[in-house]
């Protein structure tokens, strides 16, 4: 009988905290904008901006101060690439910069005066590239095209030097390219920026909008001298779980819908890769969203002002994107960054989502990321409960001091 009464009381308290948290969310216009407007618009906006994913024939200006055969050959090969179109050949940097400022070109390639002389002297030669960073596609095109031409030129130069040294054709081939390799890119053969960037961003949007909204509410409560973790006095220590679970359920109810919209509907609307099982993606969301909730609860305890959340949001987002490994291979991270990346749920979720949706992996192959999210949920849940306990202990001490003063 006592156990049944306890369960009823537990559910009643949980429901009261759950309803109260929903009321706070829907009474704050700023949080509604972040959760719903930003949550719905950001995935669409990113797909519209990077919708094509591939940019062909980007116009560039070339400044050839060397004027030798080596620089002219490099320019011809660069113009023949899919990524670049040598639209202008300028006499100096001032002319090229003028075209750049007029938006007639999106990049500049400059060959120094000693380019051919250094090649003739068998010394390393350097070229300078400048890209329009209003879109990362411009930078990608310029870097990929010049890099591929540079590798091709390097092989040609090495072959000529070995031939001049008396090596035969077979010996030259073995020296320049001892192992024949062929690049095979099964999941992104066109090097589409959208295919490797957007899936990671979709997962980050869920985490960051949730963290921003939860932190805004916590900052608002503190500005109004209220607790971010309200717990009725009758619950005492045993009510901590009810407080965290009640609040968390409110966010889970909202973000399971946002997660399905972001991870399932958006890829269908914008024809992103969908090689995985939708059921596996849903299970990933079931692991990811609770991790984001308790992550937000934990770090929102440090928010003292409402506007602080915005500054942290802007600061953390690019870091989270970098740590997913979409811009730099995670295997090449130093140990510090590998450990630091484990702080954010988006690190595991983005990698798992890319593996499932783009590469067609199943849950077994995404197992390490799922286990990482489960571990984060456990750790951050404990920290969230600790934060609630310390916050309410602080409030009780403050109430006792006020009673003594008034008494």
From TrEMBL:
Keyword presence, Cell cycle: no
GO cellular component term, pick one: plasma membrane
InterPro entries: ABC-2_transporter_component, ABC2_TM, MFS_trans_sf
Membrane topology: Multi-pass membrane protein
One of the record's GO molecular function terms: ABC-type transporter activity
UniProt superkingdom: Bacteria
Transmembrane segments: 30-49, 196-218, 250-270, 282-303, 310-330, 373-390
Subcellular compartments: Cell membrane
UniProt keyword terms in alphabetical order: Cell membrane, Membrane, Transmembrane, Transmembrane helix
Keyword Magnesium assigned: no
Primary subcellular site in the record, as a coarse category: membrane
Ranges for domain ABC-2 type transporter transmembrane: 31-384
Protein name as annotated: ABC transporter permease
